[in-house]
């Protein structure tokens, strides 16, 4: 069976296997940025509350009146997200986990009850969570009245998990980033203890195979000859012409880079 959710400890371990060192603070930052969705399993009732705001049209300084009504409610079983969960991330091996209560559901992560839910919500609507009630599957509940004496839904830091696909996306992104870094590193050479960029390397350092290097320089010389370019001055007019043409094509070349290859081409056609 494919794993569906990761605990915070499992996320940290999974990313460490991809050579990414991450802490609980980093996990919280990923939650804030929307890369991870801290979730808990919830078995209870969800009620969609519509909040209508009424303001005095004559005196705008008067308090705004809020009139709440229930748009719909369902018996729900599945994973939900609340924005405050990110503040309670900690290792699952702690002896005494943090606990708190939540009221609002900011996102339905997975609906295991397969109950049709009318989402997305309107701008003036929000979802409130309530625990199971006796006969709540057949009895119409007055959730607005119920909420007046409601102390919230208790949860523990040990309940918080992250969707599998989000963790896998982070792992794949890190692997892609590592490949980019490796490709970049392949264009960087070490000279003693100094790291130099390819712009500063000689043609011999960039293309170590002498036959290939010479063939490239001859090709450059031939192309210059076809375009009536005098390469006896590698940093002169031919250099400027090549840089200008490259810029028009949306490419970027360095003056020194062009100069060193024109110079090699000049030497190989003597």
What characteristics describe this protein?
5-stranded antiparallel β-sheet, two-stranded antiparallel sheet, 270 residues, 23% strand, alpha+beta
Helix content: 25-40%
The biggest sheet, with number of strands, parallel, antiparallel or mixed sense and barrel status, is:
5 strands, antiparallel
Structural class: alpha+beta
Which shape, going by the Cα principal axes? elongated
Strand order of the largest sheet: 5-7-2-3-6
Order of secondary-structure elements: EHHEEEEEEHEEHEEHHHH
User: Mean of the pLDDT scores?
Assistant: 82
Q: Compute the number of structural domains.
A: 2
Q: How far apart lie the N and C ends?
A: 69 Å
Gyration radius, to the nearest Å?
32 Å
Structure commentary:
- The protein is α+β, with helices and mostly antiparallel strands and 270 residues long.
- The chain folds into two domains: 39-160, no CATH class; 196-268, no CATH class.
- Helices cover 34% and strands 23% of the residues.
- It is elongated.
- A hairpin with a 2-residue loop joins strand 10 (189-191) and strand 11 (194-196).
- The strands form four sheets. Strands 5-7-2-3-6 form a five-stranded antiparallel sheet.
- The protein has eight helices and eleven strands.
